[in-house]
Amino acid sequence: MTPLLQVENLAKFYGARIGCTDVSFDLYPGEVMGIVGESGSGKSTLLNCLAGHLPPDRGAVRFDTRTDGLRDTVTMSEPERRMLGRTDWAFVHQHARDGLRMNVSAGGNVGERLMAVNARHYGDIRSSAIDWLGRVEITADRIDDRPTAFSGGMQQRLQIARNLVTGPRLVFMDEPTGGLDVSVQARLLDLLRGLVRDMGLSAIIVTHDLAVVRLLADRLMVMKDGHVVETGLTDQVLDDPQHGYTQLLVSSVLQV
Amino acid sequence: MTEYNFAYLDEQTKRMIRRAILKGLAIPGYQVPFASREMPMPYGWGTGGVQVSAAVLTPDDTLKVIDQGADDTTNAVSIRRFFQRTAGVAVTEKTTEASVIQTRHRIPEQALRADQIIVYQVPIPEPLRFLEPSEVETRKMHALEDYGLMHVKLYEDISQHGAIATAYAYPVKIEGRYVMDPSPIPKFDNPKLEMAAIQLFGAGREQRIYALPPYTKVVSLDFDDYPFQPSKADHCCAICGSTTSYLDELITDDAGGRMFICSDTDYCATRVEDAG
Amino acid sequence: MISVENVSKNFVLHNQGGTTIPVMAGASLHVAKGECVALVGASGAGKSTLMRMIYGNYLTAAGRIMVGDVDVAQAAPREVIALRRRTLGYVSQFLRVVPRVPTLDVVAEPLLLTGTGQEQARAQAAELLARLNIPERLWGLSPTTFSGGEQQRVNIARGFAFAYPALLLDEPTASLDPTNRAVVLGMIKEAKARGAAIIGIFHDHAARDDICDRQVDVTRFTPGLAA
Question: What is the pTM for the complete model shown?
Answer without folding.
Answer: 0.85
